[in-house]
UniProtKB/TrEMBL annotation:
Residues 1-24 are annotated as: Disordered. Coiled coil: none annotated. This is Peptidyl-tRNA hydrolase. GO terms for molecular function: hydrolase activity. The keyword Disulfide bond does not apply. Transmembrane segments: none annotated. It comes from Streptomyces violaceorubidus. The keyword Nucleotidyltransferase does not apply. Signal peptide: none annotated.
Amino acid sequence: MSNDPTTPVPVPDSPFRPEPGDRDLAPQFVLPLVVRIERAAPPPRTDALETAARAVLVMLADERSAGDGEWARAMRDWQDARIRKVVRRARGAEWRRAEALPGITVTGGTAEVRVFPPVPLDGWPKDLARLQVSGTDLDDPEPPAGADPTAPVLWMNPDLEMSAGKAMAQAGHGAQLAWWELSDGERTAWRDAGFPLSVRTADPARWPGLTTGGLPLVRDAGFTEIAPGSCTVVADHPALRRRQPQM
């Protein structure tokens, strides 16, 4: 097997595999996320990425997403197919209309992201469908502080250029893969702590080791911006890290 982190590695029935699989036969759904970007006060990029990742986790952990909850059927249908997430931007009246729709708003340092229950790929509510995907280019005014090694870290590929919207979706994918790998007790502890996490760009020298260390990783299906099979995120959760063989 190649150790090149840019080489596509087929994963049977993965929600992120570049090749068609069984998940493509199911009806396709998408998880909408809307980031608030006001002209005068856009959020820092890293804050937006972290808030989007937490928003995905909050949706997964919400009681309405499980059992007989009102969002449970849509969540099951979405997770049985490709795990698609699309980030759109809103400001002013657009944001107020988005907030009026069923969903959950998650706030970071200054970033606000609203996540909605999954919708059919071609069945977006009109107030979300009219929002723009482009225009989510955000910057960090200052380099982010170092990641807390005792908390989960979503490591981004240092060799890929992605818009903030694309990177927010990828961070959400990484958080979701970590959530799936955790035990019920570990999920509860993470939720009760408020889903602490960091999103950071990995050091290029460390990236190959991260992608081959057994931690959950996202390989993009290549629908937008980047080549199919590109590894975008490694989900480094302490509970998962402890399970890895010690060298």
